[in-house]
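User: Hey, my collaborator sent me this sequence without any context and asked if I could get a structure. I don't really work with proteins. Can you help?
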Amino acid sequence: MATPEQQEANNRLIKKLSLIVVGMFVFAIGILPPLYDVICDITGLNGKTSNEAAAVEEAVVDEERQITVMFIADTDPGMPWEFKPVTRSIKVHPGEIKKIDFRVTNNTNDWLVGQAIPSVSPAQATPHFKKTECFCFNEQELDGNSEKDMPLIFYIDPDLPKSVTTVTLSYQLFNITDRVVDAKKAVAAY
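Assistant: No problem. I've predicted the 3D structure and written it out in structure-token form, which is a compact way to encode the shape of the chain:
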């Protein structure tokens, strides 16, 4: 049996350990995700691209180089849409503006809202992949049993390292219908 001094020491230890656990939880949930996003934005890690339109610069098209750009589309398991690039890959000259479409099909009877999250690989290509218009900048609504083409207009910055000859742009499409409906209800209640 523990003495009163040992019991008091154990209680202090439990309080300290509990505070450490709470602190770790706050750090993991409240501090680490924004910090991770900032680091990814600065370094280009994780292939995360900007969610804002790039300005179309008066870049000189580098006719001497050709980059293969491959497009991949995938849906989250909670998104019942078909989602694919109309064109799987193209060859572009750095500085050349290109437009391609991605097609979504809603085979359900329900109105749904999706949001596409882009990623570029290799990582060193991320800051050089410039989207001037992208369906990923906005939520995409689609009525049941319908389809639409969604445009992407982009160019590859001529400063892309010469060692990079292939760039892959991939999108993951998520179902955000519940979030949009909840937000509309909150606005209506206000």
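In plain terms: The CA atoms of residues 130 and 155 lie 5 Å apart. You can pass these tokens on to your collaborator as they are.
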